[in-house]
Task: structure prediction
Amino acid sequence: MLSPFLELRHLRTLCALQETGSLARAAQMLNVTQSALSHQIKFLEERYGSPLFERKSSPLKFSAIGERLLELGAHILPEVEQAERDVLRLSQGGGGTLRIVVECHTCFDWLMPAMDVFRQRWPDVELDIVSGFHPDPVALILQNRAEVAIVGDPDEDDPVVYHPLFRYEMLALIAKQHHLSERSYLQAQDFASEVLISYPIPDDMLDIMRQVLIPAGVTPAGRRTSELTVAMLQLVASGRGIATLPMWTVQSYLEKGYVAAKPITPNGLHAHLYMASSPEVAQRPWMQDFVRITRECTYKALPGIELLHPKP
Result:
């Protein structure tokens, strides 16, 4: 007799494993330990008397049993999630407004796909982006001019709720023939004789300045700014200076050999992103789903990011 029963969490585990390609990444996406997922896989394989996938295949190759369970998960999990959303609409109301203010110039690369998924799942929520650059996006929430802000550094004194998204690495972009191209990584002092190319935002919002150069007492030889990422990379490619950008913004340019990328400091330069919302909005079911959708979409699409999880 087969017991206990197959559960939804087992199907979620297999689907996450298929989407991410590894047990470690699936565990991070589901916010559980890798050991817990391994136990689920072991349970299923003992239950059905067969492996679910080839352990060292890349990409993962699922067995016939694994494929059948994935087929079941692909069919039933969206139905369950849709039913949950429908119940929440009936019990708590599904309508509302979600105006988003963005602090990060490069956020639109991943935010727009997440918004597209959200619109399909919550058509009664009016979704919009507050135009323009805002140096203090949380203030717009407090002024009731936005419901959500995408921010880099949470301020625990602010009367808002911070929903953790992900951690990512900032890379130094240099011309392919740059004299620093042989370095395995760049240090603060390497920027002293270079022009720093950045978006036109205050230094306390630039990770390279705030985390690396200012603490080291280093001032770049010059500064140039641009609103457009492609314009920044053109300046870099022509040897006009160094830019620092996330991997997801420049990956296609690196693959084409347009510019070269170097880590910043031996341990890398890392930054974090959060969603901020008022406590009231944080309780809305569509807000909770928007956070989940954004985390899942970015983790599947962006190279090299690490999901952040709420503190216990």
The mean pLDDT is 91. Residues 110-311 form a domain with the D-Maltodextrin-Binding Protein; domain 2 fold (CATH 3.40.190.10). Residues 225 and 231 are 9 Å apart (CA to CA).
